[in-house]
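Review form for a predicted model. The reviewer records the input and the model, then writes brief findings.
Reviewer: anonymous (R2)
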Amino acid sequence: MPEIQSSLKSLKTKSTIRNEIASVVEQELRNESPQISQAISTDVYAQWIEFQREFKEVLSLAKEIPKFKEILKTYGLPKVSSLIGVALSNVDRSQIEEAIQSGKFERVLSLPPRSWDILTTSHDFSKIIDWANLAGNKIDDVVEFELYKYINPDELDRRTLNDILVIRDHSTISNLAMLDIQSIRSLLKIFSHNLTKITDDLSQKDLTQLADYIVQFGAERVNQVVQFLLVNDPTKIRNNRVIHDIISSNDINESIKFWREPLFLTSVPIGILGVIRGTISWQLFTDKYEHAAIVIFLLIGVAILLGITVGFRLLPIFKSATSSALSLITQQFVKQAEPNEKQAEPDVKKKGVTGVLDFIMLISLDSLHNQEIEVGQLLSVTVVEAANYLKDLREDWRNLFGGRMTHYENLIQHAIDEALEKLEEKAKKHNYDGIIGLKISHPKITAGAVEIIVYGNGYKNKIRSALQSISTSEEELGTSKK
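Model under review:
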């Protein structure tokens, strides 16, 4: 075995084997070469025909447009031919030629291949470029969420586009994209997680209607409304009155709270109080109670009329009882005061003329004949007397049907009396003997009040002043004697 192994490794043996193989292969090749040559040439020809068929338009464009050759060199045949294939399925050859000449073709060729899908719906190279200018590096997201199918890039700004893309939910973005641009902008005020829920529950018509309602409100109020819809039945948006009345309320939180209250009798006073305060609209009140609301308001009206009627009937009785009570109190006071008055009589007598001079004359004349007086400064008093609200209602009722307005007559008379008393006190304070040229302004009746102004000049009677001086001297003399 070692000898056989050594002989096989020898150069002579290797050369012999190589020559025998070469002679056999050469003979076989000579016999098969015609068939091999024919097969290779047939395959090459088939591939050439396929290349011409597949790249016919590319070759034709390269032959006709010199600029296209430069594009081929820059971007390579595979990418250029791919765009040509997409373009030929969606636009005319003339549009492709125009895009090559204007530079649009090369601009689109520089974009991600996925953006070429926009050509399938827009059929215009310009639309792809517009979307690329608007979206920038987010052009793939525009294609992924198919915004290009429903929205024109000219209608959007970059901020709105970013607000849409940040949602990152295919269903929500698709539902939004099918709306008009104004509705989209309104609905984008809604928080994204709420927006996803609301777009799943509402139809396109309902979403448009909701957008119309919230267009004038800020994000905070909008999300209050959406939260209300989500907590309740979102399809309530279809009830135009309910959602409109809630949104247009002065206090949306109070309106939502009122709407959520169960339909119990206890909620009726709460609702009525909200209507009176203005936090709840009466339309929302009627939406909740429907026909019962009409009955409630009728009952309230009847109760008010009954209250007014009963008040009118009880008023004379009340006046009589009040007068009797005041009379008894006055009599009791007089009885208690009588001893003090009797004890005070000697002092009055001692005062002489002083007791006679303790009153103030209120004179409307501008001068006094046969009296010597000294005219002083102008004194005035203003009195504003508040009216009684319930009595005002009664006077309004009388104003409607006619008749004397006794409440205002008494109110004016009381205001005049009080003003004259105050003027008299003011004259005493200034040591005047009276008021001359007294004038009373025309009463002014305003909402719930009456205004009276009285004025005149204070005066001093010279004779009376002299008597006062004598009386004072007598008192001082008596004091000195003591």
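Findings: The chain has three domains: 2-54, 117-296, 359-481.
Further findings: The domain at 359-481 is CATH 3.30.110.70 (Translation Initiation Factor IF3).
Recommendation: see findings above.
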